Amino acid sequence: MAPPPPHWSTSGAAPSGSPGVLTDPSPRLEQDFKSMGGPARLVLNSTHGQKLDLENIAKQVRSLLEALEARYSRYRVESIVSVINQRAGSGVFTEVDPETQALLGLAGRLWDASGGLFDITSGPLRQAWDFRAEGGADPAQIESTLALVGWEQIEWQGSSLHLPTPGMEIDLGGLAKEYAADSAISLMRNLKVTSAMIELAGDVATIGSGDNSVPWRVGIRDPDIAGSLCTVQLSNAAIATSGNYARRVDFEGKQYGHLLNPKTGWPVEGPTSVSALDSHCLTAGAVATVACLHAEKDARAWLERAALPWLMVSSTGKLSGPIADQMASPA
Questions:
Q1: Domain boundaries, the chain
Q2: Cα–Cα distance between 252 and 287 in angstroms, integer?
Q3: What value does the mean pLDDT of the chain take?
Q4: Confidence class of residue 24 from pLDDT cuts 50, 70 and 90?
Q5: Residue 225 confidence (pLDDT)
């Protein structure tokens, strides 16, 4: 049976909170932990007289998340991502399972749809930039590193792949977290859960409504101050936010964000943040991430083509998009 259709609405400005901070009271089970490289939260409710073993369900969800992090994190030396990267330039192809093939296929489609701005091979450029407070960039290193970047360079033999040049690498960090949220939702649905929320580092996916059949209330983070721009009410829906504000550096009299253009090696000059909603967190995250890699005018065009509810914060702090429009509408 297909899940119920997604529903969302806004409920005005929120004075505090951040993406993924639930404001519904007294969940039956709530756990905060670390997963997929950041803070995580899981909330489960028993509804309609259900007799669910919520502790066991939470254990299964966390086990699933740990397995996905072990498989896709570039920080895990035995992950499929690390194995592929370690073999770069060796001539040894790495067989990838169907699940990983699907994620790589999505990465390829996003690379194509974004005109090459979304590129999971752009990781080597991090070595040319230092986004710490005293950081900066090495223009010569940027130029030389560009030869290691390019989705089109990946070599395939059936379901096996190889990075042809030593120093090349892939990074699924732009997809894996949202994929993990969707995977957790799918698992919980299979376990007959009808009310749940999973948050992974600010990206949120939900099943049903929260306490007392009230939609889950999730804050969209304000990139400039601690707190939220607004609170979005979700039911069977997901929201993901991408931003260029968390790590910034001053270089040659100009401030840059940490998102890099893989074609030039230099930081993009696009929106400060973009949030998008969909029934799947992976779709919402992909749309928001690609938008942040574009210049603001092109980001708006991309978001309008995607036809999802979205909220964009411009470099000047201006809000736009369907979510902003609903915020401005009279109650």
A1: 75-162, 215-330
A2: 32
A3: 89
A4: very low
A5: 66
Residue found under tokens 């809000």? 319
Identity of the amino acid at 128: A
From residue 140, give the alpha-carbon distance in Å to each of 129, 222, 261: 11, 35, 16
Residue position matching structure tokens 């035995």 = 78
Q: What percent of the chain has pLDDT over 90?
A: 70
For the stretch 166-202, pLDDT in tens is 999 999 999 999 999 999 999 999 999 999 999 999 9
215-330 folds as T-fold (3.10.520)
- Identify the CA nearest to 278 among candidates 315, 331, 232: 232
pLDDT of amino acid 135: 63
Strand bridging mode 160-162 / 273-278:
unpaired
Options 1.10.3980.10, 2.60.120.10, 1.10.3470.10, 1.10.260.40; which CATH number does 75-162 get?
Answer: 1.10.3980.10
Q: What are phi and psi of 71, to 5 degrees?
A: -80, -35
pTM of the complete model: 0.90
Is the pLDDT assigned to residue 15 strictly greater than 60?
A: no
* Residue that has been written with the tokens 């379901």 in this structure: 159
**Cα distance between the two ends of the chain:** 35
Q: Strand 310-313 vs strand 273-278: parallel, antiparallel, or unpaired?
A: antiparallel
